[in-house]
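Support reply, case 0932

Customer input (verbatim):
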Amino acid sequence: MLYYSTNKRSSAVSLREAVIRGLAPDGGLYMPETLPEIPVSYFDTIHRLSLGEIAFDIADAFLGGDIPRDVLAGIIDDALDFTIPLTEVEKDIYSLELFHGPTMAFKDVGARFMSRLMAWLYRNEKKELNVIVATSGDTGSAVAAGFYSVEGINVFVLFPEGKVSPLQQKQITTWGNNIHAVRVKGNFDDCQKLAKQMLSDRELNALLPVTSANSINIARLIPQSFYYFHAYAGLARKKRPVVFSVPSGNFGNLTGGLMARAAGLPVHKFIAATNINDVFPKFMETGKYRPAPSKQTISNAMDVGDPGNFARVTDLLGKNPDKLRKIILSGSWSDAKTARAIKDLYKNTGYIMDPHGAVAYLGLKEYLNKYDDTVSAVFLETAHPAKFPETMKKIIRDYEDLPPQLRGVMNREEKFHSMMNDPMELKRYIEEVNN
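Our regenerated output:
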């Protein structure tokens, strides 16, 4: 399988080159030249399959021509060693709980798979590979956990000063070894821009192998399609159309779902639910894409003013909002509405959502009230609420929950490099680590 750039000004490359490069030389994002076609008959028996079996089947469909099946099976077994429950919270409304991995966020799925795939693809190289990742919250900790102590790989996690929760920061800054945390004076968009500048810096790339672990890397996106198939399997016997509401910031999660649909997954509609960082909903409304400075919210992992995967969404579906609306609906919700949704669902059912899942829940409720209530409706619950203790305690006064995965990190010592929003300073730091 070859992978092309969404900017279409670079030559198509192999899987290995797409994953190791991360970003195409022309600044575009890599996409597979052809998407697999999962046969319709597969969905007749999908309800009998486990998460691991489904993940292997879909991974093999995407990557089987490039990765030996036994290697792929080992990557799946190692990466997906946790459950992804589908929990009915109201009648025909389900939470897909993506937070049962080691860092309690959905990005454990993509980051763990990617780290193992990347290590296998890079296994015969002598120079250390430098992985650069920008985070608005959960990506950094998931990537750090996934790559921790992986031989031959350095990881640089860029996070915005004062714009991740204290617990999220601890999950990024307490690893050491090959994980290098970098606190940037700026916002997530600044961090993402810095990462892209390092990937496209010819001088740095001539000196050191550099790649990305953000969702701009195709190795993060392919595994994010797995859990859409898994969720469908849990609902297949209900014989109802399935709608997914996705909390959306950088739009990697939604792109994974769109890739699943393009490969044959029977999805009726997607809802791209955002917080007040509403660049995409405005694009869907006006047809004009206007990036804007990101605004800080309680759903901080979605505080993105220029979604990195917008190019992939439009590459898959085109740039005509009328055509896009046949598959995707989009809206934005304020912190006040998000907090009210968390409080009301807890009061009515006892189920506790985190702020990101709550935005997706609001999108789902609007869809059901406005368009169609004869569907199986799934919202992606992307992080455990305990990752946001200060926010959750303001919303639910008696909230007390600190799972073992999070409890251990609180007493660890932080270590990070603090810097201005300066590409030259970051470049020097990366070179210092490699000397």
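We compared this against your earlier run and they match. Two observations from our side: Residues 84-104+221-395 form a domain with the Rossmann fold fold (CATH 3.40.50.1100). Residues 165 and 388 are 6 Å apart (CA to CA). Please reopen the case if you see a mismatch on your end.
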